[in-house]
Design goal:
22 strands; globular
C-alpha cells in the first residue's frame, strides 16, 4: 500500500475515534471583541472549548428550544445626505466601502436593513417631494409625479448596494406630503388636508411602484415619521383621529389591493406614547391593514415595545430610528451602553430589526436642511471625500449584523435581573450538594439568537466599570471567558 493511502486511512480512523468518543460534540466558542478604547475592533479571539462547570460565577444559560421573534436585520437610514456623500466618492473607494458594509465576506459586516425617506428628510441638503408645484397649483391626478432628486444619489447608490446584497430589506418613511396638500402650505408642520387623503395615499403607492420599476423593493413603509413632531424641516404631524381615517379608509385598502407585499407600520415615534399605535390597532377595520408598530428611543423606556407586544402579540414590533453619537475628542467609546440599550434592549423587547439614524455625514455633520434640520446628527461613518472614519454607531451595528443574518430567531438567555439556580456543597457533609435559588444572577446584559445556518450567536455588553467574567452554559456544558470593562463581545458556536 502506498504511503499516502496509509496516511489517509489513519486520518479517517482518528476522525472516527474522535467522533465516537464524544469529544467532537463539545464545540468551540469563537469570540469577536470590541473595546471601548478602540484597541480591539471586532477582533477575533482564540477559540474556547466547552467543558465542566468550575463552580465560579453565575452562567448565562442559553436555550435554543425557547424561541421568540424572527429577525429581519440590522442597519441604518440611507438619508439623502448619506447617499450624496457616498455618490461623490471615487468609484473604486465607494465600491470598496459598500462591499465592506453590505458584503458577506470575512472582512465585511453584512448590513442587511436600510431605511429610506420618501422625499426629503431633515438630513437632505434641501427639501423636495415627488410632486412639487408652483403656489396655487394642484395635481389631483399626480400627472407630474416623479422620483426626481432620488435619481441624483439615492437610486444610483442603492443599486450598487443591491448588487452586493440583493436580499437587503428596505423600509421607507415620509417626512411630509407635498406642500400643496397641507393646511399651512409649508414643508414644516401643518397637517394633511382631508380632501387630499385619497391623493396622498396614491402618492405613497406611486412611490412603492416607481421604486420597484428601478429594481428597488420596498419591504415596509411607516405612514409618517414622528407623527407627533412638527419641528423638523420637513415634518407633518398627524393625530390619532386623522391617522385612523387616512389609514383605514384610504392607504390601507389601496396598498392591500395593489401592493399587499409591502407592509404598513404604525407610529414610527418615541417609546413614551404607546397609546398612539394601540388606539389605532383597536379599530378592527384598520387593524387588518397593519403589520406592526415602529419606535424610536428619544423618549420613554425601551420596555414600552414589550408593553405593545403584550397588548397585541399578533402584530410585529420594529425599531426604526435612533441617533447615536460620540465626541471625537474623547478616546473612549460609550459602545457597551449603546449595545446594551439598542441591540440587547430592542431585541429583548420584541423588535424584528434595529435601524440607527444616518449612515454617513461629513466632518461638520452636514448635509442637513436649515431651520429644523439636525446639526448634531453624526453619521455612523464620517466621509471626507474618499477618507472614511468609523464612529460608534457603526461598531454597534457591526457587532450584530455580521453574525445575525435575516431569518435568525431570538432565543432564550437569562438577563441581569433573572433568577438563577446555584449548587453548593453542604457545610457539614461534603458529599451532599444543596440547591439554592438566587433572585438576581447578576450576569452581564446579553441577547441570543439561532441563525438559519445552525449557529448560536450570543451578544454580551460589559457596561460596568470593571473587567468581568462571562460564563456561558449551553446544553449542560460551560465555558468561561473574560470581558474588559466597557467592552462588547459576540460569541458564536454551532448547535
Amino acid at each position: 500500500m502506498k504511503i499516502w493511502n496509509i496516511v489517509s486511512v489513519l486520518r479517517h480512523l482518528i476522525a472516527f475515534i474522535w467522533l465516537s468518543s464524544g469529544f467532537a460534540q463539545q464545540p468551540g466558542v469563537r469570540s469577536w471583541i470590541t473595546k471601548a478604547d478602540g484597541s480591539a475592533l471586532l477582533e477575533e479571539q482564540p477559540i474556547a472549548l466547552f467543558g465542566e462547570n468550575d463552580g465560579r460565577h453565575f452562567p448565562i444559560v442559553v436555550d435554543e428550544r425557547q424561541t421568540f421573534q424572527e429577525i429581519d436585520g440590522f442597519g441604518f437610514a440611507l438619508t439623502g445626505g448619506s447617499a450624496e456623500l457616498l455618490h461623490k466618492m471615487s468609484p473604486s473607494s465607494r465600491s470598496a466601502l459598500l462591499k465592506e458594509l453590505f458584503g458577506k465576506g470575512t472582512s465585511d459586516v453584512s448590513i442587511n436593513y436600510l431605511r429610506l425617506s420618501i422625499g426629503a428628510s431633515d438630513l437632505n441638503r434641501f427639501v423636495y417631494s415627488y410632486n412639487d408645484l408652483k403656489d396655487g397649483e394642484t395635481d389631483i391626478a399626480l400627472k407630474k409625479f416623479s422620483l426626481g432628486h432620488d435619481y441624483d444619489d439615492i437610486i444610483p447608490v442603492l443599486k450598487e448596494i443591491l448588487a452586493i446584497n440583493p436580499t437587503l430589506k428596505i423600509m421607507a418613511s415620509p417626512w411630509s406630503a407635498p406642500t400643496w396638500m397641507k393646511t399651512n402650505g409649508k414643508v414644516q408642520g401643518g397637517s394633511l388636508k382631508p380632501e387630499y387623503y385619497a391623493v396622498y395615499a396614491k402618492y405613497l403607492l406611486r412611490y412603492v411602484q416607481e421604486m420597484k420599476k428601478e429594481g428597488i423593493v420596498i419591504d415596509a413603509i411607516t405612514v409618517q415619521n414622528e407623527p407627533l413632531n412638527s419641528r423638523n424641516t420637513p415634518s407633518m404631524p398627524i393625530t390619532v383621529p386623522e391617522m385612523r381615517v387616512f389609514l383605514r379608509d384610504h392607504l390601507g385598502p389601496l396598498f392591500y389591493k395593489n401592493v399587499p407585499e409591502t407592509k404598513i407600520v404604525l407610529f414610527d415615534h418615541n417609546c413614551d406614547r404607546p397609546d398612539y399605535p394601540l388606539a389605532l390597532l383597536n379599530d378592527m377595520e384598520l387593524d387588518r391593514y397593519v403589520d406592526g408598530s415602529g419606535f424610536h428611543h428619544y423618549g420613554g423606556d425601551i420596555s414600552t415595545m414589550s408593553l405593545v407586544h403584550q397588548a397585541r402579540p399578533d402584530k410585529n414590533i420594529y425599531f426604526t430610528e435612533q441617533m447615536v453619537t460620540q465626541n471625537t475628542d474623547v478616546p473612549i467609546m460609550n459602545i457597551a451602553y449603546q449595545v446594551e440599550r439598542l441591540v440587547i434592549g430592542t431585541m429583548r423587547n420584541w423588535s424584528k430589526n434595529l435601524i440607527l439614524w444616518n449612515l454617513a455625514a461629513d466632518p461638520h455633520n452636514d448635509p442637513h436642511t436649515d431651520n429644523g434640520g439636525c446639526s448634531i446628527c453624526q453619521g455612523a461613518l464620517t466621509l471626507d471625500g474618499d477618507a472614511v472614519s468609523k464612529n460608534v454607531a457603526f461598531h454597534v451595528i457591526a457587532q450584530a449584523s455580521k453574525f445575525v443574518p435575516t431569518g435568525s430567531v431570538r432565543i432564550q438567555s437569562n438577563g441581569p435581573f433573572d433568577g438563577v439556580v446555584n449548587l453548593t456543597t453542604d457545610e457539614e457533609n461534603a458529599e451532599i450538594t444543596r440547591t439554592t435559588h438566587i433572585a438576581q444572577g447578576n450576569v452581564l446584559p446579553n441577547v441570543a439568537f439561532k441563525t438559519p445556518e445552525g449557529k448560536i450567536v450570543l451578544i454580551v455588553a460589559n457596561s460596568s466599570f470593571t473587567d468581568r467574567s462571562v460564563k456561558i452554559q449551553y446544553r449542560g456544558r460551560f465555558v468561561n471567558l473574560s470581558l474588559a470593562a466597557g467592552a462588547i463581545a459576540t460569541y458564536v458556536w454551532p448547535i
